[in-house]
Amino acid sequence: MSVSSIVKRGMEAGSFIRKMFEEGQRLRAQYGADNVFDFSLGNPDLMPPPEFRKVLLEEAAREAPLIHCYMPNAGYPATREALAGHYREWLDLPFQAENIIMTSGAGGAMNVVLKSLLEPGQEVVVLAPYFVEYGYYISNHGGKMVVVGTDEEFQPRIGAIAEAIGPATRAVIINSPNNPTGAVYERPVLDALGALLAEKSKQTGNAIYLLSDEPYRELLFDGLKYASPLLSYERCICVTSNSKDLSLAGERIGHIAIHPRCPDAALLTAAMTFCNRTLGFVNANALMQRVVGRLQGVTVDTAPYQRRRDLLCKGLSELGFQFNCPKGAFYLFPKSPMADDVAFADFMKDYRVIVVPGSGFGGPGYFRISFAVPDDTIVRSLEFFGQAAKKLGMKA
To answer: Looking at the domain assignment, is residue 318 inside a domain?
Structure first.
């Protein structure tokens, strides 16, 4: 065999998101781009804030020795200190530059953290529905993913998590606001989770870490404020990026934030800095590090995403679709009106609407819609959603 069997299995399983995107490309070639309604990719379409362009041009024009060369593997000290200062002000925790590691996006950050923590065969608990790549990230480093379902509102079930934790458990991954559901975890559930992990760490004699995947934490609706798990558990490690809050997905810039009161924070920083280099990420992009270091507290305007959410929720609700209204991110996760969500996604292609089956996220019976699309795409798509709903007997 010319490729790894593990990789071959992964390729065959594939990603429903990419498969549906490719189907959208085929339909666009057939019907024209304006006549296909593609909700498959979570690709932020808002322009970065105007401050970004200003700072980017200033940093690109700077001339200084070694400005485009390697820096310490954890990132520029000034950038790390800027981020630490933001965490100090935001959470009133004693963050220092040593608690921050700059990375190649949140995906790079998650792989660095898992490589640093996992022994072969150790387990990582993941809450379903979940970001499709988690399983690959965990297996990349010899771990085993243990999936635990959430409740009807896609909130963590603390009792089920407790049952899933055993002697081999090394970490629990949470993602709030959640991809694909848009669910947001508030302080009481995070406090309960933190208390559970502290108790289980004592019972098993193994330190269990809480890995919080946070690229959507600034994309909240209806005035909701983000509840950071860093305030609920000291063995908490956050991974995030500026893909969504600054609309810089293609720049691949992110960071790791290690709780400053974590008992082994210094050792973790050293291990993750080492893994940042040996996994091949080496350094996060130099120019982007300098830029985002100057943009702490700056985010995109979430009003367009909230407006699109409201358009979509109102329109689909009137057609008979059932869902929880998302509180953050830019995804809607309705129940599939057909028992087989994969068959439903295939059915919707006949109406030139591209959605992603929930089975790809460990959430069978649902489908995902990304509303990171123009308002007009949502408005015009409702006619075709309506035709499909009528065909399925969902409306008179």
So the answer is: yes
Residue 267, phi-psi category: left (phi > 0), alpha (psi -120 to 50), beta (remainder): alpha
**Backbone dihedral angles phi then psi of residue 55, each to the nearest 5 degrees:** -65, -40
pLDDT number for residue 16:
67
Looking at the structure, tell me whether residues 385 and 274 fall in a common domain.
no
Residue with tokens 């603390």: 158
Peptide bond into 177 cis (omega under 30): yes
CA dihedral 109, 114, 116, 120 (to 10 degrees): -160
Is residue 22 domain-shared with residue 144, that is, in the same domain?
no
Residue entry with tokens 């041009």: 57
- Chain centroid, CA 198 distance in Å: 25
pLDDT at 1: 64
Question: In this structure, what token pair is assigned to residue 274?
Answer: 């080492």
Report the SS3 class of residue 30: helix
The CATH number covering residue 337 comes to 3.90.1150.10
Percent of the chain at pLDDT exceeding 90: 88
Q: Tell whether the torsion through CA atoms of 313, 317, 323 and 327 is positive or negative.
A: positive
Give pTM, 2 decimals. Answer: 0.95
Structure tokens at 58: 């200033």
Cα separation of 213 and 62, whole Å?
A: 33
Q: What is the DSSP letter of 129?
A: S
Task: Tell me the residue range of the domain where 357 lies.
Answer: 5-48+300-391
- Residue 371 sits in the same domain as residue 246: no
Q: What is the C-alpha to C-alpha distance for residues 127 and 270, in angstroms, rounded to an integer?
A: 29
Q: Which residue has the tokens 């947001």?
A: 184
Element (H, E) at 212: strand 209-213
In the prediction, which pLDDT does 31 show? 80
**Judgement on whether residues 242 and 107 belong to the same structural domain of the protein:** yes
pLDDT below 70 — which residues of the chain? 1, 11-16, 395-396
- Give whole-number Cα distances, 291 to 1, 15, 78, 195, in Å: 45, 32, 11, 37
On the CB side of 269, CA atoms within 13 Å amount to: 22
pLDDT by residue (tens digit) across 20-46? Answer: 777 777 877 888 878 889 999 899 999
pLDDT of residue 395: 67
Beta-carbon contacts of 141 under 8 Å, excluding residues fewer than 6 positions away, are 111, 114, 115, 118
Query: What pLDDT, on the 0 to 100 scale, is given for residue 213?
Result: 98
